[in-house]
Amino acid sequence: MSLPSTPTDQPSLAPRKQTAGEALLWIIMFVLLWSAINPGDLHSWLVGIPVVALASVVALRLHSPVPRRYSLLGAVRLTTFFVDQSFRGGWDVAKRALSPAMPLNPAMLNYPLRLRDELAQVLLVNLNSLLPGTLSADLADGVVTFHVLDAGPETFADMQTLEERVAGLFSIPLGTGKDVRA
Amino acid sequence: MNLSESISAVLILGGMFFFVAGTVGLLRFPDFFTRLHALTKADNLGLGLVIAGLAVQASSWADVTRLVLIWLLVLGASATLCFLVARTALRHGQKPWTK
Q1: Within a domain: residue B31?
Q2: How far apart are CA A71 and CA A32, in angstroms?
Q3: Considering the domain boundaries, does residue B74 fall inside one?
Q4: Is residue A176 part of a domain?
Q5: Which of A36, A88, A106, B14 is the 20 to 30 Å CA partner of A19?
Q6: Same domain (yes/no): A82, A153
Q7: How far apart (Å, rounded) are the C-alpha atoms in residues A92 and A69?
Q8: How far is the C-alpha of B48 from the C-alpha of B43, rounded, in Å?
Q9: A137–B41: do the CB atoms touch at under 8 Å?
Q10: A39 with A104, same domain?
């Protein structure tokens, strides 16, 4: 898996100090979220303030220290792709489940990821599990093991597209033209 | 039924269809991994459509936010659990069924 690596491809893994700005950002986000689900309810803050504090601490501690650039266009493209694939795949799987002949051609496959970033890998693995027809079964050393209900010629192509959309969200450039079946 | 009620009914019935299909798959599919497929898919599409149907009728944006949050939390839990269950089965030598 020798990939062309660019500086943005592999962000520095050195721990970065959490800044006050980041803490403030989380607090604002959780305050907005709490007000959204409890609009105009002042008493709810009796619970809300400790919850916001706790959530911010947890978010700061769990959030990976790698600096990332998120792309709004990437988020829209990933969401569109996810919704579209959900309906196509969902319909396809439903047909197979309900058909008397139940046409299935399951297979366990390995896909070496071009994505290097761990958060991006985890997101890809989870989205792959949620998409109908595919299910992630392992992630080790940058290789995803996944199960498909119906192995076909487009199985790896779909995975590549999902990987490209996830990369787009994080503005990560991916190498192209790599034969993943190798 | 007015318009929003009709849209809501169509969405919820659509969601129920995917739940039923998922349950049928869970019962009929041949092995551990194929059955696990059936479970996760209902959470995504089935619950998504039911949530969308309820959101159409929600009385406030706070309710819509709550509904969407519920869906996102279920999706997160579902994907994580599905992966952990599949990985454990795979690493303990569970063999996938093939034609």
Answers
A1: yes
A2: 22
A3: yes
A4: no
A5: A36
A6: yes
A7: 35
A8: 7
A9: no
A10: no
Domain, as residue range, for B52: 3-91
Do residue A76 and residue A152 come from a single domain?
Answer: yes
- CA distance linking residue A115 with residue A174, whole number of Å: 7
In a domain, A35, yes or no: yes
Residue A178 lies in a domain: no
Range of the domain at A109: 72-169
Residue A182: inside a domain, yes or no? Answer: no
Between the alpha carbon of residue B12 and those of residues B7, B64, B65, B74, B87, the distances in Å are: 9, 15, 18, 17, 33
> Which of A95, A130, A150 best probes binding to B when mutated, by most B CB atoms within 10 angstroms?
A130
* Number of domains into which chain B is organized: 1
Looking at chain B, which residue has its C-alpha nearest residue A129? B79
Tell me the count of A-B CB pairs closer than 8 A: 114
Q: Testing the interface with B: which of A104, A146, A148 to mutate, by most B Cβ within 10 A?
A: A104
| Strand ranges in chain A using DSSP code E only, listed in sequence order | 107-112, 134-140, 143-148
CB atoms within 10 A of CB A32: 10
- Domain match, A131 and A152 both: yes
The percent of chain A in helix, strand and coil, each rounded to the nearest 5, is 50, 10, 35
Q: Are strands A134-140 and A107-112 parallel, antiparallel or unpaired?
A: unpaired
- pLDDT per residue as tens, chain B (99 positions): 799 999 999 999 999 999 999 999 999 999 999 999 988 777 789 999 999 999 999 988 889 999 999 999 999 999 999 999 999 999 999 999 988
Please tell me the total count of domains within chain A. Answer: 2
